[in-house]
Design brief:
This protein is mainly beta. The chain has two helices and 36 strands. It starts with a helix and ends with a strand.
């Protein structure tokens, strides 16, 4: 209990609030909902016990700050990923309203500072792999039930028509896939399969979807089977960091890069905080990783990797630690919306906060 108390007492950088005061912060009033009971609630006490802010990485000279943004229209979690398209944040699928297979597609426009609802996914699911290409949004697989019973469907959404079109399905049903666009291809790395707790497992698959041909091919397998990973593309390399090996009880701190030209994976400097279900983006020339969960932990650590020096630093931690959160860069800020404030999928949130270095 001593360790929990110390974590909860840490001051949140960029804010006058300490962690225990989060429950009284006006931003958090009625921003949460339980999966097993309808109705808005305040931040659960368990979320304060699970919140972790400590990072072993050295502090960056400029810590940056977090700001509160307009909340989601309803509490959601386990979207696992979000993406930016035409300067707007897109959140697809996830848990909501006591269901695991919601098709919601919410869009945040920083120009109007408001959320709107776009055409729903044709097949609702959680942990949907999303990315963009040529002004369109792609959605790969996902789970129908709580982190299990994956499906193989793939869809593409066009803004002008505000409609989804079904594409060639995945070769094998899977969810929690890392998806990233490279040229005219989409790389789909890792993920999980299985319909129950006994056969659910992470995979080391690496598929490349050819957008023009609507076909898949195999690429070099990922060195370690993982799902719920962070993935970005920068300067010709795919970076894949963290994730879980079958469960968040066995999170990984591994960090690999993949060179599409060589079809080869390489080890890089591991992330300081092993985590899964975290947000990962490229911002100001660095790879930022924030949020995620572990055993009785929800991470507020905000750690960034310098591509040039192969080193990690810590920045101002999240105001509200969450996992399964939608994360994307809009303008000069990293936006994080929704997510679970305590371990597991039992509570979802409408919280929306943004980080900037100013």
């Amino acid at each position: 209990m001593k360790m929990i108390s110390r974590r909860a007492a840490l001051a949140v950088a960029g804010s006058a609030l300490a962690a225990p005061a989060l429950a009284q912060h006006p931003h958090h009033g009625q921003m949460f909902e339980r999966m097993n009971q309808p109705g808005r609630i305040d931040l659960p006490p368990l979320a304060l016990e699970h919140a972790v802010y400590d990072s072993p990485a050295p502090k960056a000279a400029q810590q940056g700050k977090w700001d509160v943004k307009p909340p989601l229209p309803l509490p959601r979690t386990e979207m696992a990923w979000a993406t930016a398209l035409n300067g707007k944040l897109h959140l697809v699928g996830g848990y909501a309203e006591q269901r695991f297979d919601m098709p919601y597609h919410h869009v945040f426009d920083p120009a109007t500072n408001a959320w709107t609802e776009a055409a729903k996914l044709p097949r609702g699911a959680n942990h949907v792999g999303v990315t963009t290409h040529d002004g369109k949004l792609y959605a790969f697989g996902g789970f129908i039930e709580q982190n299990r019973f994956p499906h193989e469907d793939v869809f593409v959404w066009t803004p002008g028509a505000n409609s989804w079109v079904k594409l060639r399905p995945l070769p094998t049903a899977s969810g929690a896939i890392g998806a990233v666009t490279v040229g005219d291809s989409i790389h789909l790395v890792g993920g999980a399969i299985g319909n129950n707790q006994d056969d659910r497992r992470s995979v080391d698959w690496h598929l490349v979807y050819d957008i023009k041909e609507d076909r898949y091919r195999q690429a070099a397998r990922f060195p370690t089977s993982r799902d719920h990973v962070g993935i970005v593309f920068n300067n010709g390399l795919i970076h894949l960091v963290g994730g879980r090996v079958d469960t968040f009880h066995t999170n990984s701190n591994l960090h690999h890069t993949y060179d599409p030209k060589e079809d080869r994976w390489r080890f890089r400097n591991p992330i300081p905080t092993a985590r899964s279900g975290h947000g990962t983006v490229v911002y100001r020339g660095k790879m930022f990783c924030m949020g995620g969960e572990g055993t009785n932990k929800v991470f507020g650590q905000n750690e960034a990797y310098d591509f040039q020096t192969d080193k990690w630093e810590q920045y101002a931690p999240m105001l509200t630690p969450r996992h399964g959160v939608g994360t994307a860069v809009l303008g000069d800020a990293i936006h994080m919306a929704g997510g679970g404030p305590q371990m597991g999928g039992g509570v979802k949130s409408a919280v929306h906060e943004a980080f900037t270095l100013g």
